[in-house]
Amino acid sequence: MSLKRRSGIIKSDVLIVGGGIGGMQAAITAADEGATVVVAEKADTCRSGSGVTGNDHFMCYIPSYHGEDFDAIIAEVTDTLVGPL
What we know:
- The chain is of the alpha+beta class.
- It has one domain (14-80).
- 32% of the residues lie in helices and 9% in strands.
- Strands 1-2 form a two-stranded parallel ribbon.
- The model has no long low-confidence stretch (mean pLDDT 76).
């Protein structure tokens, strides 16, 4: 996924400050309820906060959830990882 940086006024129903596990859950819940959501995060939300490392620092691949294209999962991790792989 490619994200664009924007400038100017952005209108939304909900502003979430922080893309950690709590912020992302709040954003998902608000979006599920029909709100337009903006997440303000200093890093990539795919790898932000304690959610990515909170499971004893391991990565999990579940084909039924993530899909069969393992190369796409590795590419996403490589693109969003901060620090060594």
